[in-house]
Design a protein that fits this description.
By secondary structure, this protein is of the alpha/beta class. 40% of the residues lie in helices and 22% in strands. The chain has three domains: 194 residues, Rossmann fold, CATH 3.40.50.12780; 99 residues, no CATH class; 181 residues, GMP Synthetase, Chain A, domain 3, CATH 3.30.300. The strands form eight sheets. A five-stranded parallel beta sheet has the order 4-3-5-6-7, with helices on both faces. It has a five-stranded mixed beta sheet with strand order 12-13-14-15-16. It is globular and about 80 Å long.
Length: 649
């Protein structure tokens, strides 16, 4: 076990202990470039000294914005090495969103990946005058930018090497002065109900949590991970930064967002994380391709997938399986499972996680049936990710597992999930009131989620505690639980349920354009836009069938059986973060949607069959426009609740 209590110290240890092993890779112009731990230590040292040379002081914040790039990860350690705090920002943030974070963090320095991010920083600099220095990594398009506060990454490193030469003891002394309880990073929450909050995490928070999970899952320096999720998200920070340092494995950065799937196949990671939507998209792509395959290939696929559903998960969990099924599964691995995993880049995965939202049991079981050790975890930024996770051999698609190492979890009297452990955040930056509301004097953190433990001691999350409501007759309504059940269908991308204080539950639905578009193509249905396809009568009928299937499932739950959906509509546009309807992590901003579409909600409860709507939208180039439509309101069948049927009998 390393004695280092900060990431800069751990970097020096790794450089000395495993200096020749790969620490990170990046695909550039189709070629993978590799840096070992010794090279990374040199790069970080030069950047840290360069930052100091241009005025970076202990306690300063460094805004970091861009795609997953080794240079941006190095900048985190460089800032830490000289007593500063890295503050990663979502790369798709609009300038206004970025301005809030830069201003709130009181940042004087920013590191941008490319011209796009530099332009946003230049735009907000007029309203955030505290921002003094901007560094850019990729010089393309910036040749004619002559501002004296704008510096290239290479120039800062060159300045740093000169500073290091003139002050040879500075770097080691600065690193040695760091402590485990120093601030390691500041990560901003997604802001579902208001402005984002700056979550302050220490080196101890991140390192202890990373190490505990590493030891539990036996991660080693031989593992590989693909870093493709936003650097501003706590999951990426733990998996691609924290565990990169503590386990010493290699982090691989894709060439671009568009090449992630190809780069995944190139690397074949052993350790993988993806939110449910990614797994849903992958499964949708697989099933769409199989529909277009030759009949023999299609029959072979379905035969062996039925076998995998029966035996694959049991084999993965070490449970007894008949000799015949085991033999057939081995054959299926040669003919179907192996080639499919190879095509997806999943051949070497020995550990995969999903979190953020509930994942559909069918989707979850599909990947586990292939022999992929996919598990669910439950976490949050304020926990340094891990609150609960599923131990090997105890994987249940309906739960999120048992408490993570050193983490305590309990359910409050009102049903809210509380936890405490080594990853608990220090504070919300400049917000003592919000900190006190979330974390009590004994260290217990209020998650805001409603949950319960099942008989096996596994946690089941029902909904956000504040979103759980009741119908006028007292029936419990858990909107997120209902929404997740709808989103389990591949051709439903998003859903928003309503019902608190009403006499029944109603819902908005977004179709998945790729999945539904493929269905339309196979059925010779022409459409010119999302809006046109979403309004097609056959599409409404498909969604109605999905809603009624959800109602059947709900009817089996004695607590939530009365919250079945009676009426719904398919929205004329996709919910979009640029329009304020979703956060940057694609969480529904429920209050915003309730205000924006109040007229549609009233129509769902007024008995109308149709409602006209006009909505302002933001196009990719920033222009505004208006989308108008007449939306059909569809009724859905509801079913007797199982518990009530039992009483009646």
């Amino acid at each position: 076990m390393s004695g280092a209590d900060s990431f800069p110290k751990l970097l020096l240890e790794n450089a000395a202990r495993i200096g020749d092993r790969p620490a990170c890779r990046e695909k550039d112009l189709g070629i993978w470039q590799t840096w070992n731990w010794a090279q990374v230590a040199d790069e970080v040292r030069a950047l840290a000294c360069g930052l100091t040379a241009i005025g970076f002081q202990p306690g300063d914040k460094l805004i970091i914005v861009g795609d997953n790039r080794p240079r941006l990860y190095w900048a985190m350690t460089a800032a830490q090495a000289v007593g500063g705090v890295p503050v990663p920002v979502y790369q798709d943030s609009a300038a206004k969103e970025m301005a809030f974070v830069v201003d709130h963090a009181e940042a004087r320095f920013a590191l941008a990946e490319d011209q796009e991010q530099v332009d946003k920083l230049l735009e907000i600099r007029e309203t955030v005058p505290r921002l003094e220095q901007i560094i850019y990594s990729d010089p393309r398009g910036l040749r004619n930018y002559g501002q004296d506060f704008l510096h290239s990454y290479d120039a800062i490193q060159e300045t740093g090497r000169e500073y290091d030469g003139a002050n040879p003891d500075f770097y080691e002394q600065s690193v040695a002065g760091g402590k485990g309880d120093d601030t390691s990073v500041m990560l901003y929450t997604s802001g579902t109900t208001g402005n984002p909050k700056g979550v302050v995490l220490t080196h101890d928070n991140v390192m202890r949590t990373a190490r505990n999970n590493q030891e539990m899952e036996k991660l080693t320096e031989d593992d590989e991970i693909l870093a493709y999720l936003p650097m501003a998200w706590v999951g990426d920070h733990i998996f691609s930064f924290g565990q990169n340092f503590t386990a010493g494995f290699c982090v691989n950065c894709p060439e671009s967002a568009a090449t992630v799937m190809q780069d995944l196949r190139d690397i074949g990671p052993t350790y993988f994380f993806a939110p449910p939507r990614i797994f849903e998209n992958i499964l949708t792509t697989v099933m769409v391709r199989m529909e277009d395959a030759a009949p023999i290939k299609r029959r072979l696929f379905h035969y062996f997938m039925e076998l995998a559903q029966r035996a694959g998960t049991r084999i993965l969990d070490g449970k007894p399986v008949s000799a015949t099924d085991r033999l057939l599964y081995a054959l299926g691995n040669i003919l179907v499972y192996g080639p499919l995993k190879n095509t997806l880049g999943f051949s070497r995965i020995r550990l995969a996680y999903t979190a953020g939202e509930a994942i559909g049991p069918d989707i979850f079981d599909f990947f586990r049936a292939l022999g992929i050790n996919l598990k669910q975890l439950y976490g949050m930024t304020e926990a340094s990710v891990f609150i609960t996770l599923q131990p090997d051999g105890q994987v249940d698609p309906e739960t999120v597992g048992t408490p993570a190492p050193e983490v305590e979890v309990r359910i409050a009297d009102n049903g809210e999930v509380l936890f405490r452990g080594p990853g608990v955040f220090r504070e919300y930056y400049k917000s003592p009131e919000a900190t006190a509301e979330t974390k009590d004097a004994e260290g217990w953190v209020h998650t805001g989620d409603a949950g319960l433990f099942n008989e096996a001691g596994h946690l089941k999350i029902i909904d956000r505690a504040k979103d759980v409501g009741k119908l006028v007759d007292g029936t419990l309504v858990a909107p997120k639980y209902i929404e997740n059940k709808l989103k389990f269908f591949p051709n439903i991308k998003e859903a928003v349920a309503f019902g608190n204080g009403r006499d029944h539950v109603a819902a908005f639905v977004n179709i998945d354009l790729v999945a539904m578009g493929n269905w339309a193509e196979r059925h010779n249905i022409a459409y010119a836009s999302y809006q046109e396809l979403a309004a097609h009568p056959q599409v409404l009928e498909i969604v109605r069938q999905h809603v009624e299937q959800v109602n059947r499932d709900l009817s089996q739950d004695p607590n939530l059986g009365g919250s079945q959906i009676k009426r719904f509509l398919v929205l004329h546009k996709e919910l979009d973060a640029d329009d304020g309807e979703l956060t940057r992590t694609r969480k529904v901003r429920r209050n915003f949607i309730a205000d924006r579409y109040a007229e549609l909600i009233e129509a769902l409860y007024s008995g109308q069959d149709e409602c006209h709507v006009e909505t302002e939208v933001t196009f990719e180039d920033g222009r505004k426009g208006v989308v108008a439509a007449d939306l059909k309101i569809v009724g859905a069948e509801t079913f007797p609740v199982a518990a009530e049927l039992k009483k009646a009998s």
